[in-house]
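ok so heres the complex, two chains, lmk if somethin looks off
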Amino acid sequence: MVVAYIEDAVVLAGVYTLFSIGLSLAWGVLDVLNLAHGAIFMSAAVVAYVLTMHTSLPLPLLVLVGGIVSGVLALLLEIGAFEPLRRRSENARSAELGIVIASVVAGAALEAIAQHETSGNTVAIKTTFVVHTFDLGGLLITNLDIVIVGVAIGLTVLVAWIAARTSLGRSMRALAVDPYICGLLGISTTFVSRLTLCISGFLAGTAGVLLGVYVNGVSAGMGDQLLLKAFAIVVLGGVGSIWGAALGALLLASTETIAVALGAAPYSDAIAFVIILFLLMVRPRGLFPTPSWQRT
Amino acid sequence: MGFGGPLNLSIPLIDSFLAFSILSYSVYLSLRVGMFSVIGVVFWAAGGYFSANLLVHGWNVAFAILLTIVFSCIGGAMCAAALVRLRRLYLGMATFALVLLVGILSQDAITYTGNGVGLFGMPAKISTVALMIIVAVVALTIWLSELGMINRTLEALRLDEELTSSVGISVTKWRMYCFIFSAGLGGLAGAVNVLQSSVITPDAAGFSTIVNVLEAVVIGGTGAWYGPLLGSFVIIWLPGVLTSFGEWETVAQSLIVIVIVIYFPSGAVGLVRRVVSWVKRRSTRSRVEPLANEQDLAKQ
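and the predicted structre for the whole thing:
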């Protein structure tokens, strides 16, 4: 019984990680609090549902398509709204505020479209993926669990490697420190910003399809709840920190699962908020604060 | 009950516009001093439930409203003590989290929230005239804060906190005041809204309220006291106009707001100012023009 809860927590943590890294990257590198992130995540799942309305498709293809759809959506948001806002606003603070408002509104639009596509219902993605259950000495693991955790770990390591070891990662970190100096150093801030949001969207999209298949349900509102959990995770791990986000996701997922196990299921959603408020008060820079130039 | 006409107004529409405009003022006040906080929405919902419970138990309307304001100010002061140190996006996120926490509690704390479904059918109602008076008082207060010393202080807070504290203004104290005032306005708006619509549901503390109020403030503009009034009116009135878009109404509205945020960041206030200055320029030009002609003649 306890083992089943642990398994649940680990799978949830995988989805949370993919989702939160994207949010954390956009915030840490670009100072963008992207409130459309939840809607972008949900859009991938809805697109996967629409694609499989009449036929079943293999899971890897769906995950890839979901990631690309969300990446493109995030890119469109950056090009269509965030970039002009940054260019036209008088200072960084008013740009920040404009970006929050533009993203929350764009999220509402995406949700309205999704509401239309799903007719306001919870729908299921049809995939050719067959779920097998393995019995590992009392521990029941499905191959879907393995896929989700594998994709989450793989993509997290990949993004962390890009941020830490490649010249693109160096550019991203430079952009986080100072966009102006970054431009003087000959880095195309436009290109790096676009790519950062694209990666952020891609991660959210894969998470969307995986969660949609895992819980066998897709609805227009599925991103809202997750967005707030991701806030808690980002605050836990520190803004812009990839490993912090992964650890925060594991912590939050475990706490929620423990709450469910103890029979406090209705309040498990409130845990995220309590964490946010408490941590912001006592450790506003996360549990493991690092100087901002070390992040991402 | 509609008046018809091009604006297609009705009494319920005007009532909800008036109640909503107080909420817009609450968020407007925070944004004006450079605090990104939606604490008003927290008490729009919490104060709404609070006053609804009072009303259901047969309290007097004026008393219920006053008590809700006191409740919201005390709650606001408690939140302010915890949150006022936070800056920029962190403060915004914390208040967002508070809104959604209230949303969850209003579904779970079933004793006071009608089993989590909401409270319906308030025994009391508020007249449109009374609503107008309340909104006028709020607008007047905000207008007064935009004159003289207070205006300069608030403007300084918005532009540069370090500079503000260097000239002897306590940034934390003023931020606290604005935060608590914003919470109180939110509570007032919530109480009035319950009286006006005689309904309060968990939706009050949700993303849609945050979206609506931010849209209203953006459309109105944060430059002058009449911004929230104009913005709230547009937000309440627009869905009725966009009905021809059917299901795509939200999408159309979102696109409009994004264009406004990017290209007309000063909102309706900026538009009004531009029109006023254009009219002024025209009237001065018509007076000056003959003179210019004389000069031309002299040159020839």
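quick notes: Chain B touches chain A through 41 residues (CB under 8 Å). thats all i got rn
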